[in-house]
């Protein structure tokens, strides 16, 4: 029985790729009963009489699974933010990073539109993330040279491109591989954000073994599945200090003898990171009360 990877899901069809090409498949009839939904990125067992008439028979074990976008087995998340138009937002970047850390995915931060100018504040904030161990890449619009660093990070992996609308995700992919001709939309002046140009989840093949998903809906992030008690574990600088707090179940909010709060006071944890932690903690708690 052949094995392949789902590279696109559209209108109930799954497009499975292996060394013999791409096969259009439907899911096996009993999947719904077994509560199995094949996802883009899944390795699957399938059978196909021809290129357009196949069936996915079994979904292999996943290393991870994202809900928004619905994709599996992601190895790298490239979080794309612009230096200008729209302005860099550490709050939203932290939200992406928390979700990516929760799924055990490596993260690379990509700052686009640097040719429009990088403010001193944005530069300082980017350096905070670099000190935390995140790779930060800087690209200018349609510069092939600056896009080469991103292409190198993607090599040999399944990656997700994530970030606000209008920051230049599709533009960047077009620079890396011009023959993609991905649709791009200019930023809306009235709203200060771009329109989503991506309609479905699809793995785009950049090279042998190198795929990237330009995904819709990733900016709609909620905290279902993340517990307030484990939130600080998703901040590397806080996770390193958890055992130094006086109380084992320290929330790092009001407790005395908190190593995290002390680190914020002495400047070894950035104030803006701690502020996002507090906001996310509140969001998780209020979400818990709602559900």
TrEMBL record:
InterPro entries: G_CP_dom, NA-bd_OB-fold, P-loop_NTPase, Ribosome_biogen_GTPase_RsgA, RsgA_GTPase_dom, RsgA_N. Binds 1 zinc ion per subunit. Residues 72-219 form the EngC GTPase domain. One of its GO terms (biological process) is ribosomal small subunit biogenesis. Residues 63-221 form the CP-type G domain. Its cofactor is Zn(2+). Its EC number is 3.6.1.-. Coiled coil: none annotated. Its main location: cytoplasm. Keywords: Cytoplasm, GTP-binding, Hydrolase, Metal-binding, Nucleotide-binding, Ribosome biogenesis, RNA-binding, rRNA-binding, Zinc. GO terms for cellular component: cytoplasm. Belongs to the TRAFAC class YlqF/YawG GTPase family. RsgA subfamily. PANTHER family: SMALL RIBOSOMAL SUBUNIT BIOGENESIS GTPASE RSGA, SMALL RIBOSOMAL SUBUNIT BIOGENESIS GTPASE RSGA 1, MITOCHONDRIAL-RELATED. This is Small ribosomal subunit biogenesis GTPase RsgA. It comes from Alkalicoccus saliphilus.
């Amino acid at each position: 029985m052949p094995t392949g990877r789902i590279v696109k899901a559209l209108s109930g069809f799954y497009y499975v790729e292996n060394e013999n090409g791409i096969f259009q498949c439907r899911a096996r009839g009993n999947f719904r009963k077994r509560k199995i939904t094949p996802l883009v990125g899944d390795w699957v067992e399938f059978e196909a009489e021809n290129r357009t008439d196949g069936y996915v028979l079994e979904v292999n074990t996943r290393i991870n699974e994202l809900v928004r976008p619905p994709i599996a087995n992601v190895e790298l998340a490239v979080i794309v933010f612009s230096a200008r138009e729209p302005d860099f937002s550490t709050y939203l970047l932290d939200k992406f990073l928390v979700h990516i850390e929760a799924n055990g995915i490596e993260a690379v931060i990509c700052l686009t539109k640097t040719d429009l100018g990088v403010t001193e504040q944005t530069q300082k904030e980017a350096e905070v993330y670099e000190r935390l161990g995140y790779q930060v890449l800087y690209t200018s619009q349609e510069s092939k040279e600056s896009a080469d660093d991103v292409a190198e990070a993607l090599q040999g992996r399944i990656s997700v491109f994530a970030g606000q609308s209008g920051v230049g995700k599709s533009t960047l992919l077009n620079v890396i591989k011009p023959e993609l001709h991905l649709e791009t939309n200019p930023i809306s002046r009235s709203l200060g954000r771009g329109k989503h140009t991506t309609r479905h989840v699809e793995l785009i093949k950049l090279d042998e073994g190198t795929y990237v998903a330009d995904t819709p809906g990733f900016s709609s992030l909620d905290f279902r599945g993340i517990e307030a008690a484990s939130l600080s574990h998703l901040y590397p600088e806080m996770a390193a200090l958890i055992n130094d707090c006086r109380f084992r179940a320290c929330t790092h909010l009001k407790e005395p003898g908190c190593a995290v709060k002390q680190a914020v006071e002495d400047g070894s944890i950035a104030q803006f990171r701690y502020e996002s932690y507090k906001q996310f903690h509140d969001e998780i708690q209020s979400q818990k009360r709602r559900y």
